[in-house]
Amino acid sequence: MSDTPVLFLATAAQIGGVILNVVVCGAAIWKGERTEKIAATSIVIASILSPLVQSWDDWSSPQWNILIVDAANLAVFLWLLARTHRIWLLFACAFQLLAVLSHMGMLIDPGIMARSYFAALYLMFYGLMAALACGIFEGRSRERRARVASAESNIIASRYDLPDA
């Protein structure tokens, strides 16, 4: 264990993660469909809980509490995937599962360097943010296609309406 404290916003990866979280989750909550809003809310809650439950005394040891938060977040994504069958959720589940497995790697071999452990978690978080961003676009294009299909069916229906006699 090192005597130097780990600061929450000390590295470019941490600062970039917070900015990415605010931008992508904010966009999902603002412009996304219900699925994206639920996923973004889950990510925001996990992002707030993780530093609160993190072991700040020995940050080089396995982070049991963050593992629980990440596993709960994975459960939310799996539940959403089972209900909605969105492509982007496959990738979100994959990245979140890799984050959980990164915790498991630290549990199996505590000799894994803490920097590698946290770097892997940040990489999985960035992948999760990319998946959510794609989900916003996927939802918007699905909505657009539904509007076009509805307009086309209205045009076709109006062409074959017979005037009242």
Explain how this protein is built.
With about 160 residues, this protein is an all-alpha fold. About 80% of the residues lie in helices and about 0% in strands. The protein contains five helices and no strands. The chain has helices at about 10-30, 35-55, 65-85, 85-110, 115-160. Helix 2 runs antiparallel to helix 3 and helix 3 (about 65-85) packs antiparallel against helix 4.
How would you spell out the order of helices and strands?
Answer: HHHHH
**Main beta sheet, described?**
none
* Rg value: 21 Å
By helix and strand content, what is the structural category?
mainly alpha
> Can you tell me the overall shape?
elongated
The total count of strands amounts to: 0
Span between termini: 89 Å
Estimate the strand proportion. Answer: under 5%
Helix tally equals 5
| Assembly form of the protein | single chain
- The percent range for helix content is over 70%
Low-pLDDT ranges: 1-6
Mean pLDDT: 82
